[in-house]
Amino acid sequence: MYSKKITVNELANMIDHTNLKPFASKKSIKQLCQEAKNNSFAAVCVNSCNVYLCKEELKGENVDIAAVVGFPLGATTSETKAFEAKQATELGATEIDMVMNIAALRENNLHFVKKDIEKVVKASQGMIVKVILETGYLTDQQIIRACKLVKEAEAHY
Q1: Could you give the C-alpha distances from 76 to 86, 95, 111, 125, 139, in angstroms and in order?
Q2: Which letter does DSSP use for residue 144 in this model?
Q3: CB of 46 closer than 8 Å to CB of 19
Q4: Backbone φ, ψ for residue 128 (5° rounding)
Q5: What is the DSSP letter of 136?
Q6: CA–CA separation, 16 and 37 (whole Å)
């Protein structure tokens, strides 16, 4: 059992406040940013088309901007994911949350999965990279393999 006690502020600093809805309006993204500022959240997480707006809204604030890559299925090409990551960082993203290629992992194509992650890490130009595993589609053994690949590919999480 996890027994370390943390404060509300410490907990808030661990939260990525997210709006990945395909119909997210400018108003809702601005609200997301305001809530992140008001609550001292660690980051906002948005589709890459909203990074520029978050950058404007969070100027001078201590809130990271995470952009998703290959979202929601992870089924785009590695080159597409890398391009999306590079563009998102150029727009102001300080973190990339990529979706792993689930089918490749399930087919045990571990070399491909590792290379896919490595390409995004490289394209992210030193920014934090988190890999979304979609564990609901994986067995315990596949989750363990995926975690090892994430580490080997030098993603951060």
Answers
A1: 15, 19, 16, 20, 22
A2: H
A3: yes
A4: -65, 135
A5: G
A6: 12
State the chain's maximal CA–CA distance in angstroms.
Answer: 45
Rounded Cα distance between 124 and 69, Å, is 11
Q: What angle do CA 126, 127, 130 make, to 5 degrees?
A: 120
- Ordered alpha helix ranges (H), the chain: 8-12, 26-39, 51-57, 78-91, 102-106, 110-123, 140-152
68: which strand partners? 47, 97
pLDDT by residue for the chain (157 residues), tens digit each? Answer: 667 889 999 999 999 999 999 999 999 999 999 999 999 999 999 999 999 999 999 999 999 999 999 999 999 999 999 999 999 999 999 999 999 999 999 999 999 999 999 999 999 999 999 999 999 999 999 999 999 999 999 999 9
Closest of 96, 107, 94 to residue 132, by C-alpha: 96
| Residue pair 116/104 in contact by the 8 Å Cβ criterion | yes
37: its two tokens: 């500022």
Report the distance separating Cα 28 and Cα 54, nearest Å.
11
